[in-house]
Amino acid sequence: MAASDIQRIGVLTGGGDCPGLNAVIRAVTKTANKVYGLTVVGIEDGFDGLLQPYKAKEITPQMISGILSQGGTILGTTNRGNPFEYKRKVNNKIIQEDISDIAVKNFHALNLDALIVIGGDGSLKIADRFFREKGIPVVGIPKTIDNDLESTDMTFGFRTAVTTATEAIDKLHTTAESHHRIMILELMGRYVGWIALESGIAGGADVIIIPEIPYKIEKIVEKVSQRSSVGKKFSIIVVAEGAKPEGGTHAIKSSADQELGAERLGGAGERLGYELNEITDIDYRVTVLGHLQRGGSPSALDRILSTRFGEKAVHLLMQKEFGKMVCLKTPNIKSVMIDEAVSRFKSVDPSGEMVKTAESIGISFGR
Ligand code: F6P
Q: What was the pLDDT predicted at 1?
C-alpha cells in the first residue's frame, strides 16, 4: 500500500483506561487532519467496536475540543473481548471462539485503510495479530498506569497515577499519626511495583512492598517496632496489589476462569494487615485506592507524552511502518516492533538504583 492510499484511519482505545487517552486521540486526530488531510474514525469500546454490529463514528474537531485535560476516553474501552479468543457465558459456562474475521470484515466495511490501537500489552498483542495474520496496517501506542512495558521508558498515565497515590499517602500520614496506627495503602500495578515504589518514595512511606521483592513479615514488624522505639508510634506501609510473601503468591479476587477477562488482583493489603496483627498488637487499617488511580485529569507530563505519542503514530502509519509501536527512548519518541515490545514485562530491579535509594533513606522492603 502506498502511503498516499491512506485516506481514512481508525483509532481505538483498548484495555483499562488511564489518564492521557483523550490527549492521544486529540493529537492523532489533529495530526491526521492538519498534516495529512486524513479522516479519522473512532472505534468505540476497543475491539468490540469492530464486532457485529460495529460501533464507529468520524471524529470531528468539535469532538476533540476541550478533551486534552479530561481523564478516561471519549471512545470508551473494555478489557474483555479479544476477537481471536472471544469469550461468552452460555448456561453459566464460558465458551471461547475466534471471531476475528468479523472485525476484519467491519474494518473494510468502514472503508478504513489503517488502524491506530492505543492499549496495554493485551490490546497490543491483539493489534499485532490483526497485522500479522489478517494483513491490517496497524500502529500501536502503549498506555497503562502500571508502566510495565519493557520497550518504552514510560507509559502515559503512570505519572498521574503516582501523583494520585502520593496524595493519598500524604492524607494517610495525618490520620496515622493522630491514631498511632499502621496505615496500609494497597495500590495497583498488577505484577509490577512501579506505582507503589515511586509513590512510596514520594509520599515518605516507611515500608514499600512490591511483587519483585517477596516480603518476610518479621522484617516489616522489625521496621515498625524500630520506629515505635524512637517514639514514632505510627507507620505507613504501601503495598502493591501483586505483592507476595516469601514462598507465597499474589492475592487474587477472582481467577481468569471465573472472569470473561483476566484474573483480578486484590486483598494484598488486608492479608498483610492480618499477618501483622498476628505478631504485633498495633492497630492497623487498610485503604485500597483502586480505580481512583486510573481517573482524573492527566498531569502536564502525561499530556505531553500522550501528545507526542499520538503525533508520532500518525507519521509512522503514513511512512508505512506498520506493526510498530511508538515508545519513549528519552529524550526522543522512537518506535519498536509490537511483538518485540509486548514480549517482556518491565519490572522493578530489586537491586536497582531506585530501590537502593529508598533503602538508604531507611525505607524497608520487608527483606
Ligand atoms: O492494568 C491496569 C490496571 O489498573 C491494573 O493496575 C489493575 O490490576 C487492573 O487494571 C484492574 O482492572 P479492572 O479495571 O478490570 O478492575
A: 52
Residue 48 annotated among the catalytic residues of the structure: no
- pLDDT tens digits, residue range 140-179? 999 999 999 999 999 999 999 999 999 999 999 999 999 9
**CA 204 to centroid of ligand 1, rounded, Å:** 25
- Ligand 1 atom at minimum distance from 148 CA: 1
CATH number at residue 251: 3.40.50.460
Average pLDDT over residues 124-145: 97
> How far, in Å, are 4, 23, 68, 153 from residue 30 at the CA level?
18, 11, 12, 25
Please give the C-alpha separations between residue 232 and each of 180, 202, 225, 226, 229, in angstroms, as whole numbers. 8, 19, 9, 9, 7
Q: Please tell me whether residues 280 and 251 are part of one structural domain.
A: yes
Q: What percent of the chain has pLDDT over 90?
A: 89
C-alpha cell at 312: 508520532
With a pLDDT cut of 70, the percent of the chain lying above it is 99
Supply φ then ψ for residue 193, to 5 degrees. -110, 25
Out of 17, 146, 206, 302, which one is annotated catalytic? Answer: 146
Closest CA to 76 of 45, 122, 48: 45
The range of the structural domain enclosing residue 15 comes to: 3-156+298-330
